[in-house]
Amino acid sequence: MTQITPQPGIMEIALYQAGKSHVAGQERVIKLSANENPLGPSPKAIAAAQAAAPDLHRYPTTDHASLRAAIGDVHGLDADRVICGVGSDEVLQFIAQSYTGPGDEVIYTEHGFSMYPILARQAGATPVCVPETERRVDVDYILNAVTERTRLVFLTNPGNPTSTMISDAEVARLIEGLPQHVLLVIDGAYAEFVRGDVPFNGGAAFVDAHPNVIMTRTFSKVYGLGGLRVGWGYAQREIIDVLNRVRQPFNLSNLSLATAEAALLDRDYLAHCQQENAKWRDWLAAELAAVGVASDESQTNFILARFADQAEADACDAVLQSRGVIVRKVAGYGIPEALRITVGDEEGCRAVAAAIKAFKEGARA
Ligand SMILES: *Cc1c(COP(=O)(O)O)cnc(C)c1O
């Protein structure tokens, strides 16, 4: 028997389940399972990646100054209080690693992102799951779960896989109710998809007003760069200074940095992607509602389609797969009666709507 054993708790970490990308026997699939941008990255981002290729023998910068400056300009933030990571997942990992350890509790909500308990366990801390109410984060459940051991609260706003969000007033109430020793992480992975005439700032104003709030954002969703792996965080300078100490100096490649910056600066392409998402999101929700499949008003780039029960959701998923349409089962997120469907391009949305309609009509016949 081997004497080599991992640290306590490591083997309790459940492996992350990624959205499926293949169906047996289907050559061409429509992948609506990972909340990717169906339109792909900006052509300018692709050009920047190509332009960066000849310099891949050079080490990248360690301070990410150019990308952080661009983030600061575009979002009206202090670039010195931005940190970039290998996806926002890495920034979330820096936070869990820096601020939690054995004996500490990390609160996340019932239908919260499945990475949160994984990150807590990686740091040796104890994840604490609190209920939501009707697929919405419930601030009272979070506050009631806070103990002396609580160090971190993860809030996804808007939520994945729920697609719902809580108001600024509710976030403010949460912050007011948290003891000062608890850090609130507002994960804004879907911030660019929020409805409304004024662009949603993802919670940046809360970061400016409170020393114990961090916001994270990503290039993986609206910017169509999930394969590149770039995300960032925004916090008080003291926190950024802590996080930079656990960050590897060359965590982002020069190709990643250049590509993300070009994507960020292509505001016309971003607006185009936002408009297409908004249009097809509402179209898809209406098509599904017309055949009796309900969903909450989505603030994201996906719809959480609700069926009568798990059996019906699973049966619908089987029909979708037989047509080469891949969506995400969310039983692992505690919503077995639902399927999470990424808003695709026109072809993808028409295909998934037609398949669900056929399923519903077949079920009735
Ligand atoms: C997709 C997603 C992220 C982004 O992860 P990256 O590591 O930046 O690709 C973060 N949080 C939530 C809730 C997400 O759904």
TrEMBL record:
Modified residues (N6-(pyridoxal phosphate)lysine): 221
Gene3D superfamilies (alphabetical): Aspartate Aminotransferase, domain 1 (3.90.1150.10), Type I PLP-dependent aspartate aminotransferase-like (Major domain) (3.40.640.10)
Keywords: Amino-acid biosynthesis, Aminotransferase, Histidine biosynthesis, Pyridoxal phosphate, Transferase
Any coiled-coil regions, as ranges: none
SUPFAM superfamilies: PLP-dependent transferases (SSF53383)
Claim: Chloroplast is one of the keywords in the record: no
Domain named Aminotransferase class I/classII large: residues: 28-356
Any GO MF annotation of the entry: pyridoxal phosphate binding
Record's catalysed reaction(s): L-histidinol phosphate + 2-oxoglutarate = 3-(imidazol-4-yl)-2-oxopropyl phosphate + L-glutamate
EC number: 2.6.1.9
GO BP terms, alphabetized: L-histidine biosynthetic process
Pfam families (alphabetical): Aminotran_1_2
Pathway: Amino-acid biosynthesis; L-histidine biosynthesis; L-histidine from 5-phospho-alpha-D-ribose 1-diphosphate: step 7/9
InterPro entries to which the protein is assigned, alphabetical: Aminotransferase_I/II_large, HisP_aminotrans, HistidinolP_aminotransfase, PyrdxlP-dep_Trfase, PyrdxlP-dep_Trfase_major, PyrdxlP-dep_Trfase_small
Subunit structure: Homodimer.
Family the entry assigns: Belongs to the class-II pyridoxal-phosphate-dependent aminotransferase family. Histidinol-phosphate aminotransferase subfamily.
Classification via NCBIfam families: hisC (TIGR01141)
Protein name: Histidinol-phosphate aminotransferase
UniProt organism field: Tritonibacter aquimaris
